[in-house]
Specification:
Blueprint (H helix, E strand, L loop, with lengths): L2 E3 L8 H13 L4 H8 L3 H8 L3 E3 L1 H9 L5 H6 L24 E5 L9 E7 L15 E8 L2 E5 L2 E5 L4 E5 L4 E4 L6 E8 L4
Antiparallel strand pairs: 1-2, 3-4, 4-10, 5-8, 5-10, 6-7, 6-9
Pfam family, one: Cupin_2
Keywords: DNA-binding
Protein name: Cupin domain-containing protein
């Protein structure tokens, strides 16, 4: 990664570092996870966030590709006390990393207390063979298709209008066993993305 380490008195990348840290946290990523997604070292992310390294445009783009976020979005994202209230479909970034779409509502609000997601599971897709477990609570309502939800030892097949709500500490997994996309709206608190 091409970047320049600067002495404290010459640093001009502090704004980029502060912004990168805010964006990373907004997306619920640790420095380690962002570094892994971007294909850089943890130290690189840490140095940029501390303002000790001023990344080139190409290097910054590589880091932002791990979120994913464009350079334009990165530099125009507003962090103020009057966050955006209404969002068009194209303003909800897909924060998923595979074939399952997780479109995040209010991604530009760095002070979110919850994540609200518009999720699309293609036929046969799931969250993986291992059950997930993390802090907080989550719930969702199926809008279209079918969703098999496993929570602990319980499994249910949900259809349009059906929903779920549970402590996220309970091991869980989601799968679309149907032959068409499963669409649902979900929320979790505290935000995991």
């Amino acid at each position: 990664m091409d970047s320049v380490i600067q002495p404290p008195e010459a640093r001009g990348g502090d704004d980029i570092g502060v912004r990168l840290k805010a964006v990373r946290k907004m997306h619920g990523l640790s420095q380690r996870e962002l570094a892994k997604r971007a294909g850089v070292t943890n130290a690189t992310i840490s140095l940029i966030e501390q303002g000790r390294v001023s990344p080139s445009v190409g290097s910054l783009k590589k880091v932002l590709d791990g979120i994913p976020m464009s350079l334009a979005e990165f530099f125009t994202l507003q962090f103020d006390d009057n966050p955006q209230v209404f969002f068009r479909a194209d303003e909800m970034p897909n924060v998923g990393t595979g074939p399952i779409q997780y479109r995040l509502l209010g991604a530009s609000n760095s002070k979110r207390d919850m994540s609200i997601l518009y999720e699309v599971y293609p036929p046969g897709q799931d969250t993986g063979p291992e059950l997930l477990s993390h802090e907080g609570e989550e719930g969702g309502i199926v809008v279209a298709g079918q969703l098999e939800v496993t929570v602990g030892a319980e499994t249910a097949l949900l259809g349009p209008g059906d929903g779920y709500y549970f402590s996220s500490r309970r091991p869980h997994r989601f799968r679309n066993p149907g032959d068409c996309d499963c669409v649902l709206v979900s929320a979790n608190s505290p935000p995991s993305v």
